[in-house]
Amino acid sequence: MTKVGYSDAVNDALERLDDLGYERGIQGDLANHGPMGAEALAALGHGDKVASWVEGYRTAMPHHEPPAPRFALDAADESSWRPALGSFDRAGDWEQLMARELAEAPWRTVLARWWPRLLPGMLAGFTHGTIRTAHAVRSIAAVPEPSPLQLTELARSLGYWAARFTQLPGQPRLGGEHGVASAIAGLPRFRGEVPVTPPVAGKRLQTLDTMPGYFEALGQLAPDDAQALLSEMTSEFAGVYVAHDEIFAIPMVHTVTLPAAVRLVLPYLPAEQHTSSVAAVWQVHLAFLLAFTRDRSREADMIQEATDADLPSFDELSARSVEHGDEHVIKFTEACLREHMLRPDRRFAAAAFAALQRIDPR
User: Fold this and answer.
1) d(CA 216, CA 168)
2) Rounded Cα gap, residues 319 and 214, in angstroms
3) 3 state SS of 190
4) Contact call for residues 132 and 160 (beta carbons, < 8 A)
5) Is the pLDDT reported for residue 194 higher than 60?
6) What is the pTM of this model?
7) What is the DSSP letter of 313?
8) Per-residue DSSP letter, 30
9) Reduced to 3 states, what is the DSSP secondary structure of residue 57?
10) What is the CA angle 200-203-204, rounded to 5?
11) For tag attachment on the chain, is the N or C end more exposed, with fewer CB atoms within 10 Å?
12) HSE (side-chain half, CA atoms, 13 Å) at 90
C-alpha cells in the first residue's frame, strides 16, 4: 500500500467531506466529526487509512445540509456579530464572515482576533467548536502555505464555534491556591441514584448555577504556566475517565481532548491569551464533572487497578483505534498519546484502553 503523507491525507479528507453540514443525526445536534477524526488519524501516522475511513464515516449517519447564509455579518461592527453569537440559524453567515476574514488577513491574525471573542462560549457544540478549530490549526501549521481547503476548514471551525456559542454561568479565573487534583477532590459530586444519561446530564448542565461548589471552584486553581496546567488537566481527567464506567462513555472523553486541543493552538496565540484559555477549559471541566460524574468514592481504587494492569503499548492502542473506527476513540487515543509523550503517565494508556472497550466500534 502506498504511504500517504499527513498533509495529503488531510486535504484529500477535506475534499471528500466538503459537502457535509455542521451536524448530523436524525435527532439531536451531533457535531460533524469527519474533519477532526480524519486529521487525528493522519496525525497518528495512518494517512493511508484516512480515505477509506472518511468514506465509511460519510455513510454511518446522515448529516444535515450545509447552512445557507442569510444576512452578512460585519466583523468591524460588534453590534452586527455579537448578537449572532449562539444563533445556529446564522451558521452560514458565520462561515462566510470567517472566510472573508481569512481572505483578508493571515490566519494567525484572524485566530488571535476571534479566539478571545469565542472563548467564553467554549462549550459550543459540546466543545467541538474549539476542538475542530484546533485540528484545523494543526493541519495549517504543518505546511508552509495552507491550501484553500484548509482555510475553508478553519473558517468552518470558527464559524461553528460562533454559531453554537454557549456561555456557562460565572467567570473562571486562575487566582486560587489549588492544583488540578486538589480542586477536583474538593468539588462536591452528585450523589443521587438517577442514572447519568445524556438527557439527565444535559438538564444538569443547564442548572450549574444551583449546584453546590460550582461558583467557588471557578476561582480555586492556582496560577501556573499554561502548559503545565494543561498537562495536569489531561492526566487528571484521563484518570477521571478511567474511574467512571457507570456513565455514558463518550461525553467525558472531551475532558481530555479539549485541553489537548487547546495546547495545539496556544503556540499560535499571543501569550496574553494563554491564561484565559486555560481558565475557560477549567470551567468546562467543572461543568462536566458536575453534570456527568457521581461521587468519587471509587475513583482512586479504579485508577489504581487500571494503571496497575498490563496495558497495551501506544503503538498497539493506535492500531486498535484505527480498527475500531469510532471517531471519538481515534481522537481520544491520539490526544492521550500526544499528552503521554509530553508528560508520561499510565493514566493516558489506561484511559485510551478503557475507551476502546466502552465505546461501540463503527
Assistant:
1) 14
2) 39
3) strand
4) yes
5) no
6) 0.96
7) P
8) E
9) helix
10) 90
11) N
12) 21
